[in-house]
Structures are given as C-alpha cells and as structure tokens.
Amino acid sequence: MNKSTKIILNYLLGAVLFGWLGYSIYHQLVHRENLEQSLSHMGRTLQEKGWIGLLLVLILMFFNWGLEAKKWQKLVRPLEPISFLRAFSAILSGVSFSINTPNRIGEYGGRILYLKNHNKLKAIAATIVGSFSQLIVTVIFGLIGMLYYLNNFTLVKENSYFPPNFWEKIVFGILVVICVLTILLYFRLQIILAVFEKVRFLRKAKVFVQIIVRYSAGDLRYLLLLSALRYVVFSAQYLILLDALGLEFLWWQAFLLNSVIYLVMAMVPTIAIAELGIRGKVSIYFLGLLSTNTAVIIAATGGIWLINLCLPAVIGSVLLLGVKIFKDK
C-alpha cells in the first residue's frame, strides 16, 4: 500500500468511524426511555440546589478516565512507551468503540489504534490484564456490599421453604470462591501462557500473550491500586449526583449498596445501548431500599451515563479524526 493510498484511507476511515460512532451515540440519546423526563427532573433539582455537585461530577469524570489512562500507559510500556496524553486519547477513543459491543469489549479496538502496527494485537492481552485488575476490585467491593445487604435486608418471606436470603447466600459463597481463584490467577499470569504453550491450536497465538508475564508482582499491585482509586472516583460521582438531585441517604449505606449494583452490572452481559435501562432497574432495586424517590435514582443513573459514557464517547469520536488507521512502516 503506497503512501498516497494510506493518506486517503486514513482520512476516509477516520471520517467514517466518526460518523458511525456519532450516529450510535445520537441514536442512544433519542431512543432512551424516559430520558426527557429524567433530564427535566434533573435540571429542575439542580436549579434548586445549585450546580456545584454537577460540576464536581464532571471534573471527576476526567479523573475517572485519567486513572484508566494511567493504567493503560503502564500496561503497554513493555511494548512501546506512550505519553499520558496519548494514552488518555486512546482511552476516550476506546469508549467510543464500546458503544455497540457486548460488555464494552470494543474499547480494545479503539485503544490499539494509537499503537504501532506490530504492537496492536499484543496490546489486547495487556488491556485484558487491566480489565482483570478492575474486575477484581469490583468483585471485592461488591462482596463487601453484598455482605451488608444480606445482613440488613431480608427480602424472602419468612414462611418460605428456604430460609431468608438462601439463594443470595449461595451466590455470595460462589462469588467468594471465584474472587479467590481470580486473585490467585491474577498474580500467576504465567499459568495462562503455559496453557497457550500446551494447547496445540493456541501455540501460534502465544506471541500475542507473552506480554502478560512481563509484569512484576509490584506492577500488578500498582494496577490494583489504580483500579481501586478509579472505583472510588466513579462511585463518588454517583453519590455526589444523587445528593445534588435531592436524595437523602447515609453515604456509607449508599456506597455499599452501589457496590452491589456494580457487581451485578459486571456479571450481566450487556451492551452500552441497553446498559442504562438495566442499570436503572438494578439501581431502583437496591437504592430503593434506602429511598422511595425513584425519579431521582433514575435521573442520577441517566446523568452518570451521559457524563461517564456519552460525553467521553463524543470526545473520543472526535479524536479519532486525527488517528492514522494505517501507519507508515
């Protein structure tokens, strides 16, 4: 492929990606159930209580994705050093790609566009390690929240054949086992490489996953720390927005129940298009234990979806206009 063709394709594909992603975001906005009512209620409440809370949530959005960018910068360093700004741009572009993909796996495709051609497939394995660390943090906090939920809210009838919260406790026990095994695997990533070496049809792909054994235990702990900080940031965003919209709650109770919401969302296969509706129902179920003001819960859920997903996706789709899809050798 000659240089002129690459230039044409880069501009053309960049524009096509921007158009497709922009339409996807617009389609989600105009077809979202009760979005107008949620935005209207949110606007009225913010006018009454002030915009400080919303401004803080917007600022924390950059911290949220900035911490994820810091993680990705660390993850791809063994392949090629990149600046924090480039890593941040890659993260936002990944958010754009995640709009129409199950459990946001499209993020990988958006991120690797910012790397050299020979590193792109290898970076997918590195990105999975980062997702692994975030999942571990989500499950740990989720289990703590679930323990609080099981000990304080009995939702099964007393005359039921099974004791109160029987099935919930079964799920809790299974999740504890999964969490322990996941942590052990996380700090023994060489097991995954060993599987690729021993399974015949996986051997050719071994070169693309070798990066996972280049992270030291210190690196993996550092990634967990960044993941925990990011978890605290996006949890704080939701609680701040709930407070700004007028919901009355004890912050620690809401944090614990919100951690169960994140746990459920991590376990349920979904795509970003449907995520708002599913999260809205799950949020009403758990936060409804603290307040009957479902309108505020829905408004805050919609607001976080707009701020943490749609806004970064719009920015990321614009950034893609300047990305070279086909890089020079």
Strand content: under 5%
Order of helices and strands: HHHHHHHHHHHHH
Low-pLDDT residue intervals, each spanning 5 or more residues: 2-11
Helix content: over 70%
Number of helices: 13
Briefly note the structural class of the backbone: mainly alpha
Mean pLDDT: 80
The Cα radius of gyration reads: 21 Å
Quick structural gist:
This protein is an all-alpha fold and 329 residues long. Helices cover 74% and strands 0% of the residues.
What does this molecule look like?
The chain has helices at residues 3-30, 35-49, 52-76, 84-97, 106-112, 120-152, 166-186, 190-198, 206-209, 217-244, 251-267, 272-287, 294-319. The chain is globular and about 55 Å long. Helices cover 74% and strands 0% of the residues. The longest helix is centred in the middle third of the chain and has 33 residues, at 120-152. By secondary structure, the protein is an all-alpha fold.
Essential attributes:
74% helix; globular; disordered N terminus; mainly alpha; 13 helices; 329 residues
